[in-house]
User: What shape does this take?
Amino acid sequence: MEYSIKTNMKKSECVRYTKENVPKNGWIDKAKYLGKVNDKGFKITVNHSSENFYKRNSFAPVNVGTFEETAEGTMIHIKQRMYLSVILFSILWIAASLWSVTMLILEYRMENDWSVLACLWVPMLFLLAWFSLVIFGFKMSEKKDMEQIRKLYEDYEC
Assistant: This one.
């Protein structure tokens, strides 16, 4: 998902404000946001944990933003993507499922044994379940993160 936030801050002021609100050790400090910020943009994850409850969500998006100075202030362009580890694990999961399906089909073709085809539902079910969980988990977190980051800049007082 891509979205933009318009602020009335100058670019340097926007960068400073973002740096103040996004500590690098946010998980330890129970900060709301965690990430890296520089003059070009940022990479932020939103911490949905509370004081009593630590919550790590691998499906939560990484929000990658850039600052663009305009005549009225600063436009922040944000793209959301998955963690690299989730993408790599998904690729492995898909490859293993497709390999299983291929082996079962080859077994059927070589021996003409119909009972092997009944086993195809297992890897296909794993594949469907993984796609459903990843997409559902990402989509649920995507909107929450977008609202939290919009709120970060709406809370700014001149």
Q: What stands out?
A: The chain has a mean pLDDT of 82.
